[in-house]
Specification:
Keywords: Coiled coil, Membrane, Transmembrane, Transmembrane helix. Belongs to the UPF0749 family. InterPro entries: DUF881 (IPR010273). By secondary structure, the protein is an alpha+beta fold. The protein is built from 9 helices and 8 strands. It has a domain of 119 residues: Alpha-Beta Plaits. The strands form 2 sheets. It has a 5-stranded antiparallel β-sheet. Strands 4-5-6 form a 3-stranded antiparallel β-sheet, with helices on one face. Helix 5 packs antiparallel against helix 7.
Length: 312
């Protein structure tokens, strides 16, 4: 193009205003490739019907399996309930038999004590009663304390919906061990847990969620009874065990209390199974075969005449 002065000029280009990236993104949010794929017509042939048929067959098979499993579970439920009821009945019967045998054993023990007291002199009987009280195989009576431990109230867990008392914030076997050892440490003469007398060979352990004292289960609330004089409570209250149990109670929410008991009676423990160590018997040197051949006894035995008087 020639200007007024005869000079060549470049043609004027038209300026195009392109929108910014965000405006273009909101105007066309779908990628062109995806837009083209979405605009394609879907096939209406046998492929679609085949996929639908497979889906229907799979759903029908799953429904049939679920129905069979449900019916089998419902059919086996009476048998499981009956087996469970039978086991519960057997446990109750064995527990009743065990209680009856324990009562009978206590009666026989009292009878043996009475007869033994009649057979022994006064000093010997008193000495024997003292030894029985110290070892736990004799019934004792006196002033003492009762330490009570109980699980916290059953508050449902806000997250799981379960019972909060079944978690770690409950009375465990080590709490009973700590209290029993603390009572022994402050001068208790006899200790029992829920009526189970403790001896020098007693055990306090756990089996799952159950607490066993000498292999017998105990349930809460737990009462640790001890005999040891009128000032036993004050000595236990001032001990480090009581201070520790108070902190545990404040932290976990379990119940911990100590009260004085007058004329407290603790039953006798079961007869302990005593085990003795015996020295091994050292056998003497056995005679060798050469000694047997050359010993006079063996030679006489071979050359002596028979009892009937015959011989060679």
């Amino acid at each position: 193009m020639t200007g007024p002065a005869g000079e060549d000029r470049e043609p004027a280009t038209e300026r195009v205003y392109v929108p910014d990236f965000l405006t273009e993104l909101f105007r066309n949010p779908l990628d062109p490739g995806y837009a083209e794929a979405a605009a394609r017509p879907r096939p209406t042939g046998g492929v679609g019907w085949s996929a639908r048929l497979v889906s229907v067959v799979v759903l029908v098979a799953l429904g049939f399996l679920f129905a069979v499993a449900y019916r089998q579970t419902v059919a086996e439920e009476p048998g499981r309930s009956q087996a469970r009821a039978g086991l519960v009945e057997q446990i109750n019967q064995r527990q009743q038999q065990s209680d009856e045998l324990t009562t009978r054993a206590d009666e026989l023990r009292d009878e043996v004590t009475r007869l033994r007291g009649l057979a022994l002199s006064g000093s010997d009987a008193a000495r024997l009663r003292e030894l029985e009280a110290g070892t736990g195989v004799g019934r004792v009576r006196g002033d003492g304390v009762v330490v009570r431990l109980a699980d916290p109230p059953e508050n449902p867990n806000a997250v799981t919906g379960g019972d909060g008392a079944n978690g770690p914030d409950r009375v465990i076997y080590s709490d009973l061990q700590r209290v029993a050892n603390g009572l022994w440490g402050v001068g208790a003469e006899a200790v029992a847990i829920n009526g189970q007398r403790l001896t020098a060979t007693s055990t306090i352990r756990s089996a799952g969620d159950a607490i066993l004292v000498d292999f017998r289960p105990v349930t809460g609330p737990y009462e640790v009874s001890a005999i040891g004089g009128r000032d036993l409570r004050q000595r236990f209250e001032d001990s480090t065990t009581a201070a520790l149990m108070r902190r545990v109670a404040d932290t976990t929410g379990i119940s911990f209390g100590v009260r004085t008991a007058r004329e407290l009676t603790l039953p006798a423990a079961a007869e302990p199974r005593l085990r003795y160590a015996r020295p091994p018997v050292s056998p003497g040197p056995s005679p060798t075969a050469a000694d047997e051949r050359t010993s006079p006894e063996s030679s006489d035995a071979r050359t002596s005449p028979s009892p009937s008087g015959g011989g060679r």
